[in-house]
Specification:
Elements (H helix, E strand, L loop, with lengths): L8 E3 L3 H10 L4 H6 L5 H5 L4 E3 H15 L4 H7 L7 H8 L4 H11 L7 E7 L3 E8 L7 H20 L7 E3 L11 H4 L4 E2 L5 E6 L12 H17 L6 H11 L7 H7 L4 H10 L4 H19 L4 H7 L5 H12 L3 H9 L1
Parallel strand pairs: 5-6
Antiparallel strand pairs: 1-2, 3-4, 4-7, 5-7
Helix pairs in contact: 1-4, 5-8, 6-7, 6-10, 11-14, 12-13, 15-16
Length: about 350
């Protein structure tokens, strides 16, 4: 079991592109790697695992070395569909846009476990939402911009034409380079949204894709499934539970209810968690810690409202827990973030 959320291991799928961007902008790839105690060659090793904390440091340092605040927009828009591995090929060869979107949502964690994709729809619109699963600190905006830019670029390549999008919503304040969004996106971008998501007309989902190939699609999907299964074993049980907890928005189930969700007995669940050196209580506590920081950073909710959202009966209990996590009160934390 990792010591904290920031020790979750992440594949270095996109580190070569990040290195290349920094060096093209006059920065040093060696200096970038050194920030996490590695060499440039270490970051180029295929499928090397990095800690979440290292990924955050690398994104933030790349922004500094490249002297480009909008690095996420540039990086994401430069990612060819081939950089997304088997998932990119499976989406590219899908029969229609609905199939491609469903695939990306299902196998997104084969590219990164830091976020999840959720597809929801109504009669008129379909929403492709990015669900953040871990606190990324100062790398958060860079990560979101990279993912959304990459998805929109991939969509245009899959369609082989301009992607008709109704708009993109971002769950952060408009950056001081906000005018660049109109350069990168041909559709409206709004900020301070409840969640980050792309909106398209539902009628587009049935559009036949020009590069559809059933045989190639099935082959690529099989590889996606193998990759998915390889990272969904027992070592990932804590992450599976955390993802389920994030979906219930603070109304955290008991260990008995979670065991039912995972099709096992409470005793078996507790044993499996002990085997990876954690417990259900520790996972709930870490999830509350993450959500607390997100609510304070990205909403105007007061401390009492946040405490209830996190399942605390009174704000004082939340305050004590928060001080244990961050060594300061919620009010001090929020004041620091705004200063």
């Amino acid at each position: 079991m990792k010591d904290s959320i920031k020790d979750i291991e992440v594949p270095n799928n996109y580190m070569p592109r990040l290195l290349s961007f920094v060096e093209k902008r006059g920065g040093s790839g060696d200096d970038l790697a050194a920030i996490v105690g590695l060499s440039k060659q270490d970051l180029l090793v295929p499928n090397r695992l990095l800690r979440c904390s290292q990924i955050c440091q690398l994104f933030a340092e790349a922004q500094r070395l490249s002297k480009e605040p909008a690095i996420g927009l540039y990086l994401g828009s430069q990612l060819a569909i081939t950089t997304h591995g088997s998932l990119g090929f499976a989406a590219l060869s899908s029969a229609d846009l609905a199939t491609a979107l469903a695939l990306v949502a299902q196998y997104f964690n084969t590219r990164t476990p830091l976020a999840a994709i959720e597809v929801t729809r109504d009669e008129k619109y379909t929403y492709f939402s990015l669900k953040e699963l871990f606190p990324l600190g100062e790398a958060r905006v860079i990560f979101i911009e990279t993912v959304i830019s990459a998805i929109l670029r991939a969509a245009e390549y899959i369609l082989q034409e301009r992607f008709i999008c109704e708009g993109v919503e971002f769950s952060f304040d408009e950056p001081n380079y906000g005018e660049l969004y109109s350069v990168f996106f041909d559709y409206p971008a709004t900020f301070n949204a409840v969640q980050t998501r792309v909106c398209i007309r539902t009628e587009l989902l049935t559009k036949t894709l020009p590069l559809a190939d059933e045989s190639a699609h099935n082959m690529a999907k099989e590889i996606c499934e193998e990759e998915f299964n390889s990272i969904s074993g027992e070592e990932q049980l804590d992450q599976t539970i955390r993802n389920l907890l994030l979906k219930v928005k603070g109304d955290f189930p008991s260990v008995e209810a979670m065991a039912v969700e995972l099709n096992c007995s409470p005793r078996t669940l507790s044993r499996r968690l002990r085997e990876i050196d954690t417990s259900y209580h520790k996972i709930v506590d870490a999830t509350r810690q993450y959500l607390a920081s997100q609510y304070l950073d990205n909403t105007s909710l007061n401390v009492q409202e946040i405490s209830y959202l996190l399942g605390y009966n009174d704000p004082s209990s939340f305050g004590r827990a928060f001080k244990k996590w961050f060594s300061q009160s919620p009010h001090q934390y929020r004041k620091r973030e705004k200063s």
